[in-house]
Design brief:
The chain has 532 residues and is an alpha/beta fold. It contains 19 helices and 16 strands.
């Protein structure tokens, strides 16, 4: 009779499922995995390196990690077949580009071992560490730290591995808690954590925050537009993009970036962190009253039907309404709108007429951009530039308004610093703001109605068109142009005719702008994309 082995004797009285469970190899409590020292010469291996963003700042070198791994592999005559590196990546989770690619290729059998400088380079999450160890072991791929000795053939080695994984996770969690504590303390002191939003700039040496007035003016306008209750985040994004403004990261404004900006407590002088706010040391760009008004309007919009605030319709520019026509038949193009796009439509089919492009249509923004770009090419004669500058510089009222605006901004900044430093009570601070802000807002409104930036170069109309809003562009186009011809076959504007009152401007600029004047009064452009 065969005598059962000791392990079989212990399990023979259990159910089949229980016996299979007891006999199954388990990570960290049985001989699972091997020792990398047993790998023969020529074994294909991969090297993995990683640093977080903070470690990059403190000079934690990827190159140094790789070099030590290379020495480790060379001493054992292994063949390095892959390098994987994740700069600026946290080990909190495994959603790292190079790491993910490495795990995928490990399962494909590209190499037999993964080398890294320390276990915390591989992962700081014990669940992820153990899961990857199990999965890699299943496809006969070992992991090895060049500075930590893990011998998975012994219980002691497996215990050391588990303890190092636990310590790596503890370090990350403890570091996160310390970071939160530090950021909370900074916010309580009125100091912004991280980068400041559009409209401000931070001095990295003193940590002081200053207003960028040109950007701040756009932010104030955005708040004021939304506070009217007739604008949405998207229409304000359109306004900001039309002003040639870009976000702090250099991107176009979107509905979401506007939403975030109009809800940013920083703009009315506060610092927020984890749903708490404290008075900031920086000057406010908008008043608390205006900020609260915008918040009320947003809450009201959230509880109203979309159609009540016009969100079910897309507002199209219609820049060329009634002035753009088909180059072949001469008929004025009609406006066609959908929920998403606006079009200029060749109308012959609707009017029982004939045209080779009957029924064709072109997206509004595609055609509008061509015409706006066309006007940007207009170069003003030198004598015109001098006359405009002389006229602008003669406005004493404008200079007086600018001087008073600068004085108000300085007074607001002084009050903000005094409040942040504890030299002014909150009551006195708010009283001072309530006195200055209405005057400032009135001056800003007056300046918008009566001024023009004398620093803008006047050589061409490009600066004017880029700074203009959508409605301003429409007025400019209709003021200057009588007709625009669009060729559906060539998909471009081929000619335009200025109004008689302004024709001399275009005729004077024709030579330097590359246009040819024809007897029909139209100008045909010879630049790329505008051939007539």
């Amino acid at each position: 009779m065969t005598i059962p082995a000791e392990d079989d004797h212990d399990t023979m009285h259990h159910s089949p499922r229980r016996r299979r469970s007891l006999r199954r190899k388990r990570l960290m409590d049985v001989d699972q995995g091997g020792n990398v020292e047993q790998l023969p010469p020529g074994t294909p291996v991969a090297i993995y390196s990683r640093v977080s963003s903070d470690e990059q700042v403190h000079g934690y070198s990827l190159a140094a990690q790789v070099q030590e791994c290379e020495v480790f592999a060379k001493q054992r005559s292994w063949s390095i077949v892959r390098y994987y590196s994740d700069p600026g990546q946290s080990a909190r989770d495994d959603r790292r580009p190079a790491f993910s690619r490495m795990i995928e290729e490990a399962h494909q059998g590209v190499f037999k071992a993964i080398l890294f400088h320390k276990l915390d380079r591989f992962s700081r999450n014990i669940e992820n560490t153990l899961r990857h160890f199990r999965d890699l072991n299943a496809c006969d791929v070992l992991i090895a730290s060049v500075t930590e000795d893990f011998d998975f053939t012994t219980a002691q080695g497996r215990l050391v591995f588990r303890m190092m994984a636990l310590f790596a996770q503890w370090y990350l969690e403890n570091l996160s808690a310390e970071v939160v504590k530090s950021k909370l303390e900074m916010a309580r002191r009125g100091i912004q954590n991280g980068a400041v939003p559009f409209g401000y700039v931070k001095d990295q040496q003193s940590n002081q925050v200053f207003v960028v007035e040109q950007e701040a003016e756009l932010i104030r306008t955005a708040f004021e537009l939304y506070a009217t209750g007739t604008h949405t985040d998207q229409t304000i994004a359109d306004f900001l993009n039309a002003s040639a403004s870009r976000t702090r990261r250099g991107n176009r404004w979107s509905k979401d970036t506007v939403t975030d900006s109009l809800q940013n407590e920083f703009y009315h002088g506060m610092v927020a962190y984890r749903d708490q706010v404290w008075p900031g040391r920086h000057p406010a760009i908008v008043s608390r009253e205006l900020f609260d008004r915008v918040r009320e309007i947003r809450a009201r919009h959230a509880h109203r039907p979309r159609s009540a605030i016009g969100l079910d319709k897309v507002v199209h520019a219609n820049l060329l309404r009634r002035i753009v026509c088909c180059h072949q038949c001469g008929r004025t193009l009609r406006i066609q709108s959908t929920r998403k796009y606006g079009y200029y439509l060749e109308p012959s089919r609707l009017r029982a007429g004939e045209c080779v492009h009957s029924g064709s249509r072109v997206r509004m923004e595609f055609l509008d951009v061509q015409v706006v770009d066309l006007l940007k090419q207009v170069k003003l004669p030198e004598e015109w530039q001098q006359a405009i500058r002389h006229s602008l510089q003669s406005h004493d009222v404008i200079r007086t308004m600018e001087k008073r605006l600068q004085e108000i901004e300085r007074e607001l900044q002084r009050a903000g610093r005094a409040f942040a430093d504890g030299h002014m009570s909150e009551k006195d601070y708010e009283r001072r703001r309530r006195k200055l802000l209405p005057e400032r807002d009135q001056l800003l409104q007056s300046r918008m109605e009566t001024t023009f930036d004398t620093n803008i170069p006047l050589e061409s109309m490009q600066q004017f068109m880029e700074a203009a809003t959508r409605e301003e562009r429409k007025r400019i186009l209709h003021l200057l142009l009588e007709s625009v011809r669009y060729d559906f076959g060539r998909k471009r504007v081929v000619a335009f005719k200025p109004h008689e009152a302004h024709a001399h401007l275009f005729y004077a600029a024709a030579g330097s702008s590359g246009w040819n004047q024809k007897e029909d009064g139209f100008l045909y452009a010879e630049s790329p994309g505008m051939n007539g």
